[in-house]
Amino acid sequence: MSSKPHTHAQWSSRLAFTLAAVGSSVGLGNIWKFPYMTGESGGGAFVLVYLVCILLIGLPILMSEWLLGRLGQKNPISTMSNISARLKRSPAWVLIGVAGVLGAYLILSFYSVIGGWALAFIADAATGSFESLTADTAGSLFGGLLSNPATLLAWHSAFMLMVILVVAGGVAGGLERAAKILMPLLAVMLIMLVGYAATTDGFGEAAAWLLTPDFSKLDKDGVLAAMGHAFFTLSLGMGIMMAYGSYLSDDVNIGRTALIVVVLDTVIALLAGLAIFPVVFSNGLDAAAGPGLIFQTLPLAFGQMPGGEVFGVMFFVLLVFAAWTSGISLLEPIVEWLEEKTPMSRVASAWVAGIATWLLGIATILSFNVWSDVSPLGMFGKFEGMTVFDLLDYATSKLMLPLTGLATIVFVGWFMGRDEVRSQLNMSDSAFSLWSFVARYIAPIGVVVVFASSL
Ligand code: PHE
Ligand code: NA
């Protein structure tokens, strides 16, 4: 057990901690991003690689971030500088914290735009726009939204405002209480959607496609995408989980709690896939439709099922809620950093960080219409045809998160004392040996190999 005095408040209970971690991890990554990436990467093989990455890379890195946070008892930047100074390691390890703040900024800029899409769909569901949709009209409902920068900006602003207000006001406690009800409800809604999907004729085909790996459909970039998404979906590589860990009391078992978060996050993603692809297959939609996939697919399902108007509203409300809690966790590190580095108050920091993020979000909005043919790095073959949004996504999920995650686990595996790590994890001998082996060899080598092969 850590002998250092705790410098700030602890989570009131393990449940509160787990809820906050699930609130950050379960979000658009599970319900929006996982399905469309699976669709673009050909199905089962992508899912399998993703699951392996979650287990062998994501889980040990999540545990590493929490144990560093609990030892450091500070924000990620100070935590890394304190721990590396105490262990007489290079001060460069602080870069893990710095890269995290930048990553959070870049991700939130587009996350908020997609959160805005979900808000727009609450309105569509409530006004009966899903009724009697066909594959074509569902496509144009979404296409209409995408082609209109002013509408997108309005919804992006609304989502960003929701995030800023919570972070500025520090009322996250109320949200946590809401999460206790709303996150399980989201799971129930997804199960119902899977139930509906099971009645469509595409179900068997979709389930087989999702669960049977066909490696001829997965290229190297798909493998990198699967690994990057393991980081994105668990909110890793940004110091967010490290910051949470600093509130973790000594009696919480890190391994067990990490496993709960990982399982919940993964189950939600798989349910989303099982809900969406049968509708895709039954209606002859394109599985590789990209970021619009769920927004073209789910409205069709809601339009066809009994009670679909009510369920449609409920579903998009819950999706917004899940996105909101993740968005808050993304703004938080930026605000903490500003608060510490500048004389600004928390409220001022929240507004400054929020407005800066909102401004960058405009680039993502334009990527889907006015700038849809603009490819800033198009001169480099690899990035040909990638919009600003594509580049932001690539830079964060495929580069920054895996690199900072790699640095984190290398630090814990190779630069910290075995005994200290061991007492933090509080595991049996054999469990700790296994953990060490994965953390020192499997996870880092996995990240490096996936990187190297995709270059
Ligand atoms: N994990 C969140 C999701 O899957 C997104 C997120 C990424 C949140 C990074 C915080 C940090 O939706
Ligand atoms: Na997630």
Unreliable stretches (pLDDT < 50, length at least 5) are 1-6
* CATH class division: Mainly Alpha
| Overall pLDDT metric | 93
Number of helices: 18
What is the chain-wise order of helices and strands?
HHHHHHHHHHHHHHHHHH
CATH-level-2 architecture: Orthogonal Bundle
Number of domains: 1
What small ligands are held by the chains?
A: phenylalanine, sodium ion
Beta-strand percent range = under 5%
The proportion of residues forming helix, as a percent range, comes to over 70%
CATH topology: Hydantoin permease
Q: What profile does the largest beta sheet have?
A: none
Shape: globular
- Secondary-structure-derived class: mainly alpha
Radius of gyration: 21 Å
Number of strands: 0
The end-to-end distance, rounded to whole angstroms, is 42 Å
Membrane topology: Multi-pass membrane protein
GO molecular function: symporter activity
Subcellular location: Membrane
Main location: membrane
Any descriptors?
single chain; 455 residues; mainly alpha; Hydantoin permease; 76% helix; 0% strand; globular; disordered N terminus; binds phenylalanine; binds sodium ion
Structure description:
- With 455 residues, this protein is mostly helical.
- It has one domain: Hydantoin permease (Orthogonal Bundle), CATH 1.10.4160.
- It has 18 helices and no strands.
- The protein has helices spanning 14-25, 28-40, 44-72, 76-86, 95-126, 135-146, 149-169, 172-198, 203-211, 220-233, 240-245, 254-282, 293-304, 308-341, 346-367, 388-415, 418-425, 429-454.
- Helix 9 (203-211) packs across helix 12.
- The longest helix is centred in the C-terminal third of the chain and has 34 residues, at 308-341.
- The protein is globular and about 65 Å long.
- The model is unreliable at 1-6 (pLDDT under 50).
- Bound molecules: phenylalanine (PHE) and sodium ion.
- Residues 25-27, 29-30, 233, 265 line the site of sodium ion.
- Phenylalanine (PHE) is lined by residues 24-25, 27-30, 107, 232-233, 235, 238, 240, 326, 329-330.
- Its main location: membrane.
- It is a multi-pass membrane protein.
- It comes from Cobetia crustatorum.
- This is Transporter.
- One of its GO terms (molecular function) is symporter activity.
